[in-house]
Amino acid sequence: MIFLEDLITLIQEKYNETLTAPTDESAEDKSFRLGSNFAYFDVLDLIESQLTIHEINSILGL
């Protein structure tokens, strides 16, 4: 279960990085950042749903 906890933490950190925009962000960089934001959120949502279905989230304390 430690692998899952670490994986979730790493993905959450990457997601959080996409929430803040650099001051000199170009339009292309912004599009990439927002796309990454959506992708990380989607992965976290998928992981959460699978953990819930398999009742693993209660073991991980999520």
In words, what does this structure look like?
The chain has 62 residues and is mainly α. It has one domain. Helices cover 76% and strands 0% of the residues. It has three helices and no strands. Helix 1 (2-17) packs antiparallel against helix 2. It is elongated, with a radius of gyration of 14 Å. It starts with a helix and ends with a helix. 0% of the residues are buried.
Summarize the structure.
With about 60 residues, the chain is mainly α. It has helices spanning about 1-15, 25-55, 55-60.
Which helices and strands occur, and which strands form pairs?
Elements: H1 2-17, H2 27-53, H3 57-60
Helix pairs in contact: 1-2
Task: Jot down its keywords.
mainly alpha; single chain; 0% strand; 3 helices; 62 residues
Number of separate domains = 1
User: What percent of the residues sit in helical stretches (DSSP H or I)?
Assistant: over 70%
What integer is the average pLDDT? 91
Most strands sheet? none
Radius of gyration: 14 Å
Instruction: Give the CA-based shape.
Output: elongated
Task: Count every beta strand, where a strand is a DSSP E run of 2 or more residues.
Answer: 0
Query: What fraction of residues sit in β-strands?
Result: under 5%
- Tell me the distance between the termini: 12 Å
- H/E element order: HHH
| Structural class assignment | mainly alpha
Number of helices: 3
Poorly predicted segments:
none
